[in-house]
Amino acid sequence: MNIKNTKWSPKSGVTILEILIVLSIIALIAGVVGPRLIGYLGRAKTETASLQIAQIRQTVQLFYIDVGRYPTDSEGLAVLLSAPAGEASWAGPYLESTDGIIDPWGRDYIYSEPETAADFSIKSLGRDGEEGGTGEDQDLGQ
User: Which residues contact residue 55 at a Cβ distance below 8 angstroms, ignoring those fewer than 6 apart?
Assistant: First the structure.
C-alpha cells in the first residue's frame, strides 16, 4: 500500500478570502432554508394538535360508554387520567400520561361539557393562545 506523505509548508492552506466566500455561501443557504424549516415545524404542530383532539374525542367517548356521562367542566380532561370520586364504573386511565391533554404549544386543551346530548367540545387556541387567528395562530378543535 502506498501512503502519500504530505509536507505542509507555510504557503499551504487557505486564504481569508476563501474562508469568507465559504461562510457567505453557508449564510445564503441558511437564509433560504431556515424559514422554510420553521414553516414546516409550525405546520407539523398544527397537524399534531388536530390529531390529538380527534384522539381525545374518542377517549371521551370511551369514558361516556364506561361511566354513562360526559366529564363535567370542573372535572375537565384530567378525569381521563384519574377516577372521579364515587365512580365505580370508571375503567381508566384512558390516556397514558398528562402529555395527552396538553397541546403542542404547552397549554392544556380546553374542554367544554355538552349542553345537549353529545356536543362537547375540545379545542386548542393555537400558537398565540388567544381566540381567533389564522395559520399557526388559528383555533383548532370541534
Answer: 100
User: What residue numbers bound the domain in which 40 lies?
Assistant: 16-141
Per the confidence metrics, is the pTM higher than 0.70?
A: no
CATH of the domain at 116: 3.30.700.10
Q: Which residues of the chain have pLDDT under 70?
A: 1-3, 6, 8-12, 117-118, 142
Phi and psi dihedrals of 66, rounded to 5? -75, -45
The phi, psi pair for 111, rounded to 5°, reads: -110, 135
Q: Per residue in 84-118, is it b (16+ CB within 10 Å) or e — as a string?
A: beebeebebebbeeeebbebbeeeebbbebeeeee
In a domain, 6, yes or no: no
